[in-house]
Design a protein that fits this description.
The chain is α/β, with parallel strands linked by helices. The chain contains 19 helices and twelve strands. Helix 3 packs antiparallel against helix 9 and helix 5 packs across helix 6.
Length: 523
């Protein structure tokens, strides 16, 4: 793990690639769909409730009048095309608007009339087109025709003034121009706006852009870790396992990683995804160092509530089911949970050994359904847990236990207290639990940094509470005929790992208490 990883720099130098953009779309597709739909509906509603606008168009053409000379006609045509552009400015003047308002008797102001009309001159033509818009189609038609009439009057007056000022000689060369109405405005029957369909299309496009932009912003601001690839990419620490969400681990939690039992008539088959994930974690731990596999493993997390205690218990159960001698140690002397998880006698354990009140063999407890697993509780909660865990006696205790089997220590979270760091220093390595969608990048950065400061080893991270849909492949091995692809009576049906509660209460060594249940509390 590099210093850059410890500092928490998580921005790739090359920026986001195509896969990153696709990942954002997959992650936030619901958000994108909802925002796009909302914007589309708002745009459609806005367009639907807008008043209907009708448009009427009238046109006129500038021509040279009063001459039969070909040269004069050609010169007049060229001049008419040039003057048409000038008349466009005249048509958009307040003078014409005032005259139209007076001639039509409309109560609209001149500014309102100017805002309701548009003037266009087609390229390389002497034609002028007036388009008037109004909620009333009759008014639109009336204004368009009146505008052409008033514009013609203004053109005629200006041409007469120009001819009088230039004299008779100029009139012989350049004929006078006139604006002649070409097409009167027709009464519109279909509104030109709003276009509900086009508005909906534009709204959908705009909504999609806004939705994806907000998704990118959310992804940028989201400091939570969601996938194993993200953890490995940002921290250069291997993800040695991923555990799915299992509803059986909520409420009255249970140890699911034990030896699979054959289903009995009337028993309910359970999803094997969690058990298979535990087996994969067990295998990965074995292959971390084939020549020198870890014997003392600390299971911890950044903060509480990430499932470290449940994982430690189930990992120990899975390893013992594989034939290993396993000792699970409750190293959380502040909020112990192993005694409750395995339902063994509470209040005896580490503190009794460290204070000399009992020997290790006297406080180690076992369950009849897990013969290869021993449980060492925390004992009574001491006033100085940090000093006890960091003592030489604690180191000797853990080392002596490792001679009997693999030691899995359930340690406190790394960030609230330093207890887990002390345990990681005397262990072969630590597994840091990362809860998908909850643990943040900053928390994991600081947690890994705390272990590194004391020269502790990190075996890897474990992604917990991964969405169950990513483990759908395990349904192939299910004994449920509705979810399996093959005949349940075939060979595949026998491979289905099912966890069934024991029919008789398990007995405990050193305990005369009857067991009524196996409940798990996750810290």
């Amino acid at each position: 793990m590099s210093n850059q990883d410890i500092s928490g720099s998580d921005v790739p130098a090359a920026g986001m690639g195509l896969r990153d953009y696709a990942r954002v779309a997959r992650t936030y597709w619901k958000h994108i769909a909802v925002v796009t739909l909302i914007v589309t509906l708002l745009a459609t509603a806005w367009s639907t409730f807008r008043p209907r606008i009708y448009a009427a168009e009238a046109s006129a053409v500038v021509i040279a009048v009063g001459t039969d000379n070909v040269s004069s006609l050609l010169a007049g045509d060229t001049l008419a095309k040039a003057r048409a552009k000038n008349y466009k400015s005249l048509a958009e003047s307040r003078l014409v608007a005032d005259n139209v308002r007076l001639s039509t008797g409309l109560s609209m102001s001149s500014d309102a009339l100017l805002g309701a009309i548009s003037v266009s001159v087609p390229r390389d033509t002497a034609e002028i087109r007036i388009t008037a818009e109004s909620p009333d189609p009759t008014i639109a038609q009336k204004v368009a025709d009146a505008w052409i009439v008033e514009l013609s009057k203004q053109v005629q007056e200006r041409e007469k003034a120009a001819t009088a000022a230039s004299g008779e000689a100029l009139e012989a060369v350049t004929p006078p121009l006139s604006l002649v109405p070409l097409d009167p405005a027709a009464l519109p029957t279909t509104p030109v706006s709003p276009g509900v369909a086009m508005t909906a299309v534009y709204g959908a496009a705009l909504g999609l852009l806004l939705a994806y932009a907000s998704a990118l912003l959310r992804d940028r601001l989201d400091r939570r870790l969601h996938s194993a690839a993200e953890v490995e990419h940002l921290f250069s620490v291997p993800v040695i396992g991923a555990l799915p969400v299992d509803l059986r681990l909520t409420g009255e939690n249970k140890v699911l990683g034990g030896v699979p039992a054959a289903p009995t008539p009337g028993s309910r088959a359970q999803s094997p995804a969690f058990a298979e994930a535990l087996r994969e974690l067990r295998t990965n731990l074995t292959f971390l160092d084939v020549d020198n596999p870890p014997r003392i493993i600390v299971v911890t997390s950044s903060v509480s509530g990430e499932g470290k205690s449940t994982i430690a218990a189930n990992l120990a159960s899975a390893m013992s089911a594989g034939g290993e001698q396993v000792i699970v140690v409750d190293g959380d002397l502040r909020h112990p949970s192993m005694a409750k998880i395995f339902d063994v006698i509470p209040g005896i354990g580490i503190t009794d050994v460290l204070t000399g009140k009992a020997e290790v063999d006297d406080v180690l407890q076992q369950r009849s359904d897990l013969p290869n697993l021993s449980i060492l509780g925390s004992g009574r909660i001491p006033p100085n847990p940090t000093e006890l865990l960091g003592s030489h006696a604690m180191k000797q205790l853990i080392e002596s236990l490792s001679e009997k089997g693999i030691v899995i220590i359930d340690a406190p979270p790394l960030l609230p207290v330093t207890d887990a760091v002390l345990l990681a220093r005397i262990a072969d390595g630590a597994i840091v639990v990362v809860r998908a969608g909850r643990t943040t990048k900053d928390q994991l950065t600081k947690s890994l940094g705390n272990i590194r400061k004391v020269h502790g080893a990190v075996l890897g991270t474990l992604l917990n509470c991964v969405p169950a849909k990513e483990f759908d492949g395990y349904s192939y091995y299910s004994s449920d005929p509705e979810s399996a692809d093959s005949d349940p009576s075939g060979d595949d049906a026998d491979d289905s790992p099912v966890v069934i509660e024991p029919e008789s209460p398990p007995a405990f060594r050193g305990s005369s208490r009857e067991q009524t249940s196996r409940s798990v509390t996750s810290y």
